[in-house]
Amino acid sequence: ATRSLWEQSWFDWDLAFDYNPSLFNATDFDNNGRSAVKYANLFFSTLGGRFEFGDFGFGGLVRLQNYKVGQASLSFVTANYGAAYALLHGQLMVGLAARTALLTIADRASGESLVEFGGTGPEAGAVLGLEGKPFRIGLAARLAVVSNQSGSARVAAGLTLPRKLVLPGELQIGFAYQLGARPLNRRFVNPHDVERSLRTEMLKLRKERLQEQSLREEQARQLRESVETGPPRAVASVETDPSALPAPRDREFWAEEERTRTTEEQELRAALETAEIDRKAAVVGLPRQYLLLSVDLIFTDATTNGVGIESLLTQMRQVSGDKPSLGARFGAEGEPIKGRWKARVGTYLEPSRAAGVAYRGHATFGSDVRLFRWNLFRLLDPFDVRIGASLDIAPRYNNFGVGLGIWH
Hints:
By secondary structure, this protein is an alpha+beta fold. 19% of the residues lie in helices and 44% in strands. The chain has helices spanning 191-229, 251-284, 309-314; strands at residues 11-21, 43-53, 56-69, 72-87, 92-107, 113-128, 135-142, 145-146, 155-156, 159-160, 166-167, 170-179, 291-300, 325-337, 341-350, 360-374, 383-394, 397-407. The strands form three sheets. A 14-stranded antiparallel sheet has the order 1-2-3-4-5-6-7-12-13-14-15-16-17-18, with no helix packed on it. A two-stranded antiparallel sheet has the order 8-11. Strands 9-10 form a two-stranded antiparallel ribbon. Helix 1 runs antiparallel to helix 2. The longest helix is centred in the middle third of the chain and has 39 residues, at 191-229. It starts with 10 loop residues before the first strand and ends with a strand.
């Protein structure tokens, strides 16, 4: 339900996809202090979608990790999906969701699935971004995901299996602050609310015209009766309730009313088109200079008698998650070349879930470049295509990704 500055329509949507290939043979992905696993065709991929209808929005994000070691092909999928509602004209968003984890082990030669672990748990979150303020606060809480038991199988593709899959509970809080002339938060004006307000005013005027005509016809009727039954008498219009009178019957009035209503509908459509143009122009006219700073803390609960994915793949038992952990992340984003190039840099402290292994510091870099304007073979309104790249480096670990997207 959180709308970006350029999302001003009642209905908006967004899609996301990325692919991170592995260009290394060994890595310490879990920060357990070792780089013993030899991977083949390791890759990470993400697919997501988001759809907004006024103040309501829903969507999901699916992440895939794929490993091939020895006889085994291991696929680990996590999915977050849910819905949210925007309050205070888009200044406060609250959402409920779920996350699902699925671990599949297959025979590498045949591709046959040998065993699956799957489970789902709830999560909730909120984002506060007050109009005109340069900061934003977010909070999320996730209960643990515990899978079903693996059944009677204890060995698959040469791997001794765990009893179940667990994603530990998490509590996450983030804070963002933006410097520069470009606003971070804007109040969302629902186009349907604008139309409803204009139409309500139009119908009010229409009702007043009908009541005035009904009152005139009633006064004329009373005057005719007075003339027919005796000396003329004054007609007391103030004592007549217009809402209780029958609908007007004068044909000339209805002919004029029909022309007036046609004009009103045309003026209403023109006003709505003007309002939409003004909303888009207001966004296009915003200054682009900004520096966005963000910090994030994530607390991860303990897991009893757990091991990491690398322990599963190497078949070397190493206890993971016996104590809670706390991670921290920091990022900065700006637009060095106005309308053409965005750049990001960041760092994060990755706690180790393995006993006796210290925190690991990461350096991250990202960039987006606007390429060209396209209409997807005339299927969509023209949009600007961007290409992006990211890099994450740390001791015993490095990764990079590329992606395509829409430039705003």
